Recover the amino acids of this structure.
């Protein structure tokens, strides 16, 4: 946008300078032409009067003397044709075509005293002519050569002066256009940055009020709107967290009462009914736990975005980035913890060998463990009896932590929707779960400068991949783009 506005202003500035310079130069040319024409027409009339007197008196000696003196002084030729002969000075003769034409027009009593407008370059001279005589008879013609070089030199000097002034003016106008463009667009760029920040973090700082009055008012309006949106989002997050937290106490008390009630029940039917109630309470507790984890993850993601842009946004790293973590020991611990659950559901958890090229990532170790645990539990829950592999892959620009299984997997549309809150695959409606696991992992990955990628395993199954940017020295970064990652592992 800046280039478009600045380009338009620059074109208008240059056009204005060109038009102004052209008008000034045309005026200078007319002025010099008129000045030269007035002087030479005066000389021409003087020669016509002297030639008439000489023709009347029959003595042309004085006329010839005056012609020679003029040619010597101005370097211009004069030719006068009398009835008794032709007088010449300054090398002007009838063999030149323009001289013959001028004499022919003067012989017809047609005065030719107008000079063409001066140009910086062109012929070195022109001729003007007129006749002299009585009212009824032409006694002769006077042809005067006009040397244009001196006037052209003045015109060229004026052109140089005007050209330098025009260049200086154009430079000033272009500089002013650049300053005006920056002044006008600076609030627009700040507003665009603030909108991006508000979209990513749910909050933004106070916009400075500068630029044109309309943009200052727009900045004030956006700041008010951003504060309202931020307060609303914070209130929503706080409400969810507080509600989930407060519900845990009555749900816990209700569970205790049901446990006590179960001790008093005698019949099998009553015990089965109580067991159903306990199962529903456990589901409520699981949902509350998931909501609390999700609220914490969203809060972490929001704080990280406000403090420093995420690693896959292509921005600068934060000065407060988390400590570097070697992901392999974290995966090893979570794989060992998942083995009892895997045996119960007939699955196997295999930890791949550590990568040849060791790498550290900028990720909180506890949150990395939580993400890996969620992905492994998700595979155990929805792919019972499957072979689950946990691995660390190091690629040129990215470190991938992969949890893959050979279960039924998800379709492309299901993988795209899997990180939504409370989303459950239609084929897994009968499996107990909250639909919050992938959402929590996605938010925590974002909070740690990474991202969650779901892909199809070969020949079937699901690959859940946590990708973190990798610097050229093998150290994870929070600000480098990792576009090179994302292939199936």
């Amino acid at each position: 946008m800046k280039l478009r506005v600045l380009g338009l202003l620059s074109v208008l500035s240059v056009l204005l300078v060109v038009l102004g310079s052209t008008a000034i130069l045309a005026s200078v040319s007319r002025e010099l032409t008129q000045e030269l024409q007035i002087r030479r027409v005066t000389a021409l009339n003087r020669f016509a009067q002297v030639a008439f007197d000489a023709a009347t008196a029959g003595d042309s000696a004085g006329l010839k003397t005056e012609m020679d003196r003029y040619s010597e002084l101005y370097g211009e030729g004069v030719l006068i044709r009398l009835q008794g002969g032709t007088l010449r000075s300054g090398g002007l003769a009838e063999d030149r075509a323009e001289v013959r034409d001028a004499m022919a027009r003067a012989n017809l009593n047609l005065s030719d005293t107008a000079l063409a407008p001066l140009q910086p370059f062109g012929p070195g001279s022109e001729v003007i002519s007129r006749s002299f005589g009585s009212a009824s008879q032409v006694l002769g013609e006077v042809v005067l050569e006009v040397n244009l070089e001196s006037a052209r030199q003045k015109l060229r000097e004026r052109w140089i002066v005007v050209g330098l002034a025009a260049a200086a003016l154009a430079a000033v106008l272009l500089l002013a256009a650049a300053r005006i463009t920056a002044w006008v667009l600076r609030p627009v760029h700040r507003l665009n940055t603030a909108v991006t920040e508000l979209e990513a973090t749910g909050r933004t700082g106070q916009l400075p009020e500068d630029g044109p009055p309309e943009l200052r008012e727009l900045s004030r309006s956006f700041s008010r709107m951003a504060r309202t949106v931020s307060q609303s989002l914070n209130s929503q997050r706080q409400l969810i967290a507080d509600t989930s937290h407060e519900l845990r106490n009555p749900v816990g008390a209700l569970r205790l009462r049901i446990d006590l009630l179960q001790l008093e029940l005698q019949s099998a039917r009553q015990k089965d009914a109580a067991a159903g109630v306990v199962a529903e309470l456990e589901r409520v507790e699981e949902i509350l736990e998931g909501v609390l984890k999700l609220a914490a993850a969203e809060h972490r993601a929001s704080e990280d975005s406000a403090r420093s842009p995420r690693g896959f946004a292509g921005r600068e790293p934060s000065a407060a980035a988390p400590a570097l973590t070697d992901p392999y020991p974290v995966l090893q611990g979570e794989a060992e913890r998942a083995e009892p659950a895997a045996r119960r559901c007939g699955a196997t958890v295999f930890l791949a060998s550590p990568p040849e090229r060791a790498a550290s990532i900028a990720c909180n170790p506890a949150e990395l463990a939580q993400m890996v645990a969620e992905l492994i539990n998700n595979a155990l829950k929805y792919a019972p009896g499957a072979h689950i592999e946990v691995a660390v892959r190091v690629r040129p620009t990215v470190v991938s932590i992969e949890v893959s299984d050979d279960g039924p997997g998800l379709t492309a549309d299901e993988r795209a929707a899997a990180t939504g809150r409370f989303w459950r695959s239609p084929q897994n409606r009968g499996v107990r779960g909250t639909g919050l696991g992938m959402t929590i992992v996605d938010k925590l990955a974002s909070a740690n400068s990474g991202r969650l990628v779901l892909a199809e395993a070969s020949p079937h199954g699901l690959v859940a991949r946590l990708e973190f940017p990798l610097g050229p020295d093998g150290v994870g970064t929070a600000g480098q783009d990792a576009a090179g990652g994302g292939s199936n592992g």
